[in-house]
Amino acid sequence: MNAALLKLYLATDPDLTRGRDLAALVEAAVTAGVTLVQLRDKHADGARLYDSACRLRAVTRRLGVPLIINDRVDVMLAADADGVHVGANDLPLEHVRRLAAGRLVGYSVNTEEDLRVAERHGADYIGVGPVFPTATKPDARPTMGLDGLRRFTAATALPAVAIGGISTANCAAAVQAGAEGVCVISAILGQPDPATAVRAFVRALTAAT
Questions:
Q1: Whole-number pLDDT of residue 121
Q2: Which of 166, 173, 93 is nearest to 133 (CA)?
Q3: For the chain, N or C: smaller number of CB within 10 Å?
């Protein structure tokens, strides 16, 4: 895959929209500099997730960035999204890789075994974390810090995106620790003006490279 797509990776969270239209928020964020979007909604049923995916796909296709669906391979296929992101508790990666065919497949990595699975079964990229404490994933696995991120990125040729507690204050350090980019949730969607937040991330990441 083109690792540059991971530079500023936005994952959604319905709890952060506060009544605002998700498609409009994503459009503003992508226009300001987000390079990839993941639709993440742990509580939506299949019908609602499919509807959200179709609405976001119309935006991302027009603006030329990939749309990744969290966990749900069926929704990825039905909505004609660009890929899927899964983890150790989802459908096994080897089956995801087969079903996704030529689409992007990301895999969450928190342990050495996760990394071996990602490499063995054909992940296109890995999401490494949580690097820092995060409130958007209450069931997050142990925080690894920059040293842990550095250890994983040094151990693999797979492009990595750092996730978990990413802010404008620490995103440069995550890239300097070997990540191709950062995955951001609340520090963009939880802000009053997501576009302004994105531009701040772009400045910080540009300065780091």
A1: 98
A2: 166
A3: C
CA angle 193/195/197 to nearest 5° reads: 75
What's the pLDDT at 136? 63
Closest CA to 12 of 4, 20, 204, 149: 20
Q: How many structural domains compose the chain?
A: 1
Active site residues: 40, 108, 137
Domain that holds residue 18: 3-208
> Phi and psi of 128, rounded to 5°?
-105, 125
Angle at 37 between CA 177 and CA 165, to 5 degrees: 40
Output the domain CATH number for residue 65: 3.20.20.70
Q: Which residues contact 32 (CB under 8 A, 6 or more apart)?
A: 194, 195, 196, 198, 199, 202
Structure tokens at 34: 């987000």
Q: Which residues of the chain have pLDDT under 70?
A: 136-140
